[in-house]
């Protein structure tokens, strides 16, 4: 199978189901940003850390493929003529969201309380988490715009929102594990 198809040479691409849309369509931006996020999560996973966190990040990457597939599906072609769903994979459900929440709760137990905003950085691995968090927030903004025009499963929106929170807490956990300084943002007082 060839990687290149030449079908996108004129600025269009096919959704899951065959519908062709402009490559600048909000649906393409949405799942493209999820793909970008997945690449950043992979970069985080490639860093030195415990095997449990690596396996959790692998699971998140798999869930991001599911999110991308949901966003890439044309809602008008989501149900086949036989009544079955075109996207025949497990969807994002409440347990996926709860997993992120539970993992954040566990990580937070070992972290000092936050008293100020924290400047991103302190260690390369931590910085990767913060970049992934901001990409996740961008994906959430784009998915929100898409959702307002063409609604999809609300669990997807909740998952993306919770994932950005998870990435923030993971950055704090990795700062702690790596003994990296968390630099607080303390605004200067007007004089």
CATH architecture call: Up-down Bundle
As a whole number of angstroms, the C-alpha radius of gyration is 19 Å
Order of helices and strands: EEHHHEHHE
β-sheet strand percentage: 5-15%
N-to-C span: 67 Å
Classification by helices and strands:
mainly alpha
* Overall pLDDT: 91
The number of distinct structural domains comes to: 1
Uncertain residue ranges:
none
Number of helices: 5
GO molecular function, one term: corrinoid adenosyltransferase activity
Pfam families: Cob_adeno_trans
Subunit structure: Homotrimer.
EC number: 2.5.1.17
Give a concise summary.
The strands form two sheets. The chain has a two-stranded antiparallel sheet. It has a two-stranded antiparallel ribbon with strand order 3-4. The protein is about 55% helix and about 5% strand. It contains five helices and four strands.
Structural features, described:
GO terms for molecular function: ATP binding; corrinoid adenosyltransferase activity. Pathway: Cofactor biosynthesis; adenosylcobalamin biosynthesis; adenosylcobalamin from cob(II)yrinate a,c-diamide: step 2/7. One of its GO terms (biological process) is cobalamin biosynthetic process. The protein is mainly α. Helices cover 56% and strands 5% of the residues. It has 5 helices and 4 strands; from the N terminus they run E-E-H-H-H-E-H-H-E. It has helices at residues 26-45, 51-71, 94-109, 124-149, 154-177, and strands at 12-14, 20-22, 117-118, 184-185. The strands form 2 sheets. Strands 1-2 form a two-stranded antiparallel ribbon. A two-stranded antiparallel ribbon has the order 3-4. Helix 4 (124-149) runs antiparallel to helix 5.
């Amino acid at each position: 199978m060839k990687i290149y198809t030449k079908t996108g040479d004129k600025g269009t691409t096919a959704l899951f189901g065959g519908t062709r849309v402009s490559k600048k369509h909000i649906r393409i931006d949405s799942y493209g940003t999820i793909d970008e996020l997945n690449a950043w999560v992979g970069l985080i996973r490639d860093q030195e850390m415990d095997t449990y966190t690596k396996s959790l990040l692998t699971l998140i990457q798999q869930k991001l493929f599911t999110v991308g597939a949901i966003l890439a599906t044309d809602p008008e072609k989501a149900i086949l003529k036989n009544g079955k769903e075109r996207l025949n994979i497990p969807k994002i459900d409440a347990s996926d969201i709860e997993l992120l929440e539970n993992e954040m709760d566990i990580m937070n137990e070992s972290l000092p309380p936050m008293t100020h905003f924290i400047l991103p950085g302190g260690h390369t691995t931590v910085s990767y988490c913060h970049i992934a968090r901001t990409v996740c927030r961008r994906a959430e903004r784009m998915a929100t715009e898409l959702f307002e025009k063409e609604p999809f499963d609300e669990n997807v929106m909740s998952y993306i929102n919770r994932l950005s929170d998870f990435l923030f807490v993971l950055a704090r956990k990795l700062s702690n594990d790596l003994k990296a300084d968390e630099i607080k943002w303390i605004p200067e007082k007007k004089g």
